[in-house]
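Exercise: predict the structure of this protein bound to heme C.
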Amino acid sequence: MTRLFSLALLFFSTLLLTSCGTSLRSESEIPDFNRYYADILATGSMKKPVDYHKEVKPLLEKRCVVCHGCYDAPCQLKLSSYEGLTRGGSKHEVYDSTRLVTAHVTRLFIDAHTTAEWRKKEFHSVLNEAEASPEANLEESLVASMLALKQANPLPQGERLLKGFDLALDRKQQCSTIDEFSSFASKKPLWGMPYGLPGLSQEEYDTLMRWLAQGAQGDDRIVLSPGQRAQVAQWEAFFNGSSNKEKLVTRYLYEHLFLADLYLEDDESRRWFNLVRSHTAPGEPIDIIDARRPFSNPGTAPFYYRLQPVRSATSLKNHLPMHWGGNGWRVGVNSLSIGIFMLTLFPLTSQRWRQIHLRYFRRYRCRAVTVFYSTMPVSL
Ligand code: HEC
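Solution:
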């Protein structure tokens, strides 16, 4: 009888302990971030300037861009470029199947160009935009808060992901602003960044935090070499020919390749370019036409086709590389023109025709085009 009693006691006390453990994890106190911030501000290397291009960008690319790199990134926060960081996050979802009216497009580098313009489009800041001081630069930054939250509540090492992490594509997002952060942190203490993954190493964390405290300066500058500039000028002259035939060919090229990341002949640096439509002529800074679709009326005349260097980090999810130049390019253009001609004659209404087109494009290694066609519905 006594044995039975002690067994029951053991059972209930284990139950009690387990439930305490769970509640501790899910309802932990909001951590005192000031202590974490004070540690950072007190480090000896705080005064040593952190370089965005050399130290911060590679880190964001290694630990954040895998999730924060696409158009529909969580909270639309794209960390693949500095402009994405300064644009910040949004509570609006990019893909909302329940909407009844046209969605506003929010393509980075296209639909707005200054922080003020993004704020009008209801994007909230993730960096400090209030008065600057090392303390405020951390306290008012959502990035710093998310990193400190992870630091305060690291995931247990070597265990399976705890319950409470929603990884579904259509998960409900919180996307709290900095003012809503304490409520977010008390409800979801384990949701610091990187989400559901091991935290940053101490060194990575220190680097990011010091950069934030120092004012989070950076830019997306790209300096082309004289060789690259010459090749770009040559191609832009080709794209902007004045005859109707040249205009038609470039239009078709653009409508097929607007998603491709093009790279030039003999370019060791592997700089990527997008073919875009611009209000401004070759030689002037590009002023991109923000039409909704590549075949939408540009709404301005004249307009120009330009090669724009890609400023964001490339990620496998949205990278369609295509060689641009030399023999490969010439074969590509010829095959493309013939392909387009075939397209106009035979609409892709049957599987058979689609296969013929695919075989044709694959033969000439027009990879971007192949991908484009592979993803097309069978009947257009
Ligand atoms: C595994 C995917 C993943 C990774 C990796 C990741 N995040 Fe996130 N991030 C998310 C999700 C999901 C959310 C949305 C959470 C929510 O529901 O509010 C988010 C939200 C954020 C927010 C809040 C945005 C807002 O508007 O409220 C910030 C800031 C952020 N992440 C920064 C980072 C940083 C910095 C890194 C890299 C150190 C990182 N994230 C890595 C998935 C990720």
